[in-house]
Amino acid sequence: MENRPLYIVTGASGGMGQVLTTELLRRGYRTVMACRDLKKSEPIRQRILQRCSATELELLPLDLASLDSIRQFSELLKQRDETISVLINNAGSMNDSFRLSQDGFEMTTAVNYIGTAALTLSLLPLMHSGSRIINTLSCTHRIGQVGPGWTKVDREHFARFKCYGNSKLALLLFSLELERTLRNRGIEVFAADPGVVDTGMITMHRWFDPITDLLFRPLIKSPEKGAATALKLATDETIAKDETNTPNLYWMGEKPKKISEHVLTHPYRAEIRNELFRLTGLQMPPEQ
Ligand SMILES: NC(=O)c1ccc[n+]([C@@H]2O[C@H](COP(=O)([O-])OP(=O)(O)OC[C@H]3O[C@@H](n4cnc5c(N)ncnc54)[C@H](OP(=O)(O)O)[C@@H]3O)[C@@H](O)[C@H]2O)c1
Question: By Cβ atoms counted within 10 A, which residue in 96, 102, 140, 213 is the most buried?
């Protein structure tokens, strides 16, 4: 059987994940839907196959709130000796109440940062020069505050937007460190910011949801528009370098965006490597 390189979409059952999966499949890429809920995701897989008149689209279990599940997912791909062309770390959550992951981390932090980083590090051995990693960011990274002990969130200190913003800032710092580490190996790292998008993510689970659905949702981006940035980063071969050969990491819409000095020189950036090792037991590769 032909073993073409894989395009992996995490959270492929969600608003933007479905668009990304559909568009990759339409373009003929061998695509894997990595989803936590197979029962919910299987009918979605069937619909995407029909829409694309395709026959091959694999659905694999992946729960980013469980380091065990991440290990099993990456072991399976390693046993099959797969090569990964593109990993789109699209899955994300913004929990409205305090919950702990299987490994004892606050859930939003676990999924958006710890699990996403752990998955990426676990899959690095299957990537090669030209492979791409696309992390999904958000403007809320600007309200994020990370520093020593920031992942230890308890019920008393939980706040929905604060945890979400913190997780996205940490993911951006991780992306910057990973890009620096992998640059000489030719593995490209990007951050895609979809803007504000009409998906389940922005539901507040409050009494005013029907009002915002009516008045606010029509004004924001469709999932197709929101997913366009990650799709471009996954499929456009001309974008990696600008004229000065500097990698453009953070993208929004069709364009790279400047990352603020505050983030680039963040005092916790250098600690990300050690922190991830402490939390997951996984090492970032040595710099080359
Ligand atoms: N919507 C926005 O305005 C916006 C803005 C900026 C950034 N983003 C980012 O864009 C990405 C896609 O979000 P979306 O707007 O498309 O939201 P969505 O429709 O809620 O999709 C989120 C996806 O993540 C999956 N997911 C959640 N927890 C998971 C876990 N523990 N393990 C594996 N998968 C998990 C969900 O799976 P289930 O289907 O099983 O729930 C779903 O497939 C996220 O990273 C989000 O932070 C969104």
Answer: 140
| CB atoms near residue 258 (< 10 Å) | 8
Residue with tokens 């250098």: 270
How much is the pLDDT for 242? 56
pLDDT at position 210, please? 79
Q: What CA–CA distance (Å, rounded) separates 257 from 254?
A: 10
Summarised one tens digit per residue, pLDDT across range 23-77 is: 999 999 999 999 999 999 999 999 999 999 999 999 999 999 999 999 999 999 9
Fill in the DSSP letter of residue 287.
P
Is residue 209 a part of any domain in this protein? yes
Burial of 262 (0-12, 13-18, 19+ CB in 10 A): exposed
Residues lower than pLDDT 70 in the chain: 1-2, 240-247
Token pair listed for 47 = 């619909």
Q: How far is the CA of 287 from the centre of ligand 1 (A)?
A: 31
78 in a structural domain: yes
Planar angle of CA 128, 132, 134, nearest 5 degrees: 150
Structure tokens at 226: 């929101």
| Residue nearest ligand 1's atom 2 by CA | 197
Full domain range(s) for residue 151: 6-280
> DSSP assignment of 91-155, as one string?
-----SS--B-TTSSBHHHIIIIIIHHHHHHHHGGG--TT-EEEEE--GGGGG----TTTT---G
The reply to whether 250 belongs to the active site is no
At 205 the pLDDT is: 77
Total domains present in the chain:
1
Of the residues 7, 29, 113, 164, only one is catalytic, namely 164
